[in-house]
């Protein structure tokens, strides 16, 4: 309670209200809050590395501070950013402001003119609002890549987003020309603590496959859009497909064997229960590119699908 009070007092004390000197407009965020925000923000603090900071960097906007993670040695990093954007705390002027919750005092010390946070972030929104106009975004309300739309609107980078979209449209057309995805079924299976974690649309990988026109198992389609669900390991065969994808965390120094081990721990001899695995059509890829809201990631996944599937004499799952 004492630390909470000191954080509030510190935030109020350092508030220099740079946004008040700027032209402002109203914005209704995903928490239903109406916020007065600067029309052209200059000093942005982003409180989710993967959902907000990486998209901002891809839009050409460098936040002054960002949420991040830390290694076992306590070194902060922006999850997935180094492989997706080439930018991290150690090679940019972006300042680390903590993880979960973010450090309100560290945020205040940067004197932002806008703070972007998420429904996932546990730093108190009222404390943040005392520092600078605070916008809450929720990618369970907005499809993850729709975050780009609101971020480009907030930062005036619609032209940059249009270029990213044009490149992606061309990549999807390449898949359709080379694979005929409507005749190929696909699925993404992630095993966590003995259960299966399944998303209706698994991040960037799911978006590419859905936009291209791949088909999915009925159990996947039954999950609501933008949502996920957990299933018992015994249901694994219901998520079988022509091609099954699994992922592993390179930022945690995992390897493809970790993904296999997780599936094996959930369902011993799992490969016997999956047509895709028996036919060498289980494809294991890094989770950073597969799950991030990143146009670079979309491009990587486009070429991965083309290289793995186009021209390949694969064995279809019996219908």
TrEMBL record:
<dbReference type="InterPro" id="IPR051313">
    <property type="entry name" value="Bact_iron-sidero_bind"/>
</dbReference>
<feature type="signal peptide">
    <location>
        <begin position="1"/>
        <end position="21"/>
    </location>
</feature>
<keyword id="KW-0408">Iron</keyword>
<dbReference type="Pfam" id="PF01497">
    <property type="entry name" value="Peripla_BP_2"/>
</dbReference>
<keyword id="KW-0732">Signal</keyword>
<keyword id="KW-0406">Ion transport</keyword>
<protein>
    <submittedName>
        <fullName>Iron complex transport system substrate-binding protein</fullName>
    </submittedName>
</protein>
<comment type="similarity">
    <text>Belongs to the bacterial solute-binding protein 8 family.</text>
</comment>
<keyword id="KW-0410">Iron transport</keyword>
<dbReference type="InterPro" id="IPR002491">
    <property type="entry name" value="ABC_transptr_periplasmic_BD"/>
</dbReference>
<feature type="domain" description="Fe/B12 periplasmic-binding">
    <location>
        <begin position="44"/>
        <end position="313"/>
    </location>
</feature>
<dbReference type="GO" id="GO:1901678">
    <property type="term" value="P:iron coordination entity transport"/>
</dbReference>
<dbReference type="GO" id="GO:0030288">
    <property type="term" value="C:outer membrane-bounded periplasmic space"/>
</dbReference>
<keyword id="KW-0813">Transport</keyword>
């Amino acid at each position: 309670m004492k630390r909470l009070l000191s954080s509030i007092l510190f935030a109020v004390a350092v508030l220099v209200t740079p946004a008040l000197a700027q032209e402002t407009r109203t914005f209704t965020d995903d928490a239903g809050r109406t916020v007065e925000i600067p029309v052209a923000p200059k000093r942005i603090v982003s409180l989710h590395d993967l959902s907000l900071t990486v998209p901002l960097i891809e839009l050409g906007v460098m936040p002054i501070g960002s949420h991040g993670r830390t290694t076992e040695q306590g070194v902060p990093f922006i999850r997935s950013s180094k492989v997706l954007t080439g930018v991290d705390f150690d090679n940019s002027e972006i300042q680390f402001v903590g993880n979960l919750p973010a450090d309100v005092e560290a945020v205040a010390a940067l004197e932002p003119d806008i703070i972007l946070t998420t429904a996932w972030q546990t730093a108190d929104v009222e404390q943040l609002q005392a520092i600078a106009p605070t916008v809450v975004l929720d990618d369970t309300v907005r499809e993850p890549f729709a975050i780009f739309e609101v971020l480009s609107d907030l930062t005036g980078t619609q032209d940059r987003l249009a270029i990213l979209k044009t490149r992606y449209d061309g990549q999807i057309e390449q898949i359709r020309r080379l694979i005929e995805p409507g005749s190929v079924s696909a699925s993404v299976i992630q095993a966590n603590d003995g259960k299966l974690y399944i998303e209706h649309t698994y991040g960037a990988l799911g978006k590419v496959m859905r936009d291209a026109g791949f088909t999915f198992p009925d159990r996947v389609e039954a999950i609501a859009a933008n949502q996920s669900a957990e299933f018992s390991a015994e249901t694994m065969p219901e998520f079988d497909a022509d091609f099954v994808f699994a992922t592993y965390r390179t930022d945690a120094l995992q390897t493809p064997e970790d993904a296999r081990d997780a599936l094996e721990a959930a369902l011993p001899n799992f490969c016997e229960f999956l047509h895709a695995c028996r036919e060498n059509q289980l494809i294991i890829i890094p989770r950073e590119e597969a799950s991030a809201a990143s146009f670079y990631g979309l491009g990587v996944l486009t070429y991965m699908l083309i290289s793995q599937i186009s021209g390949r004499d694969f064995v279809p799952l019996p219908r």
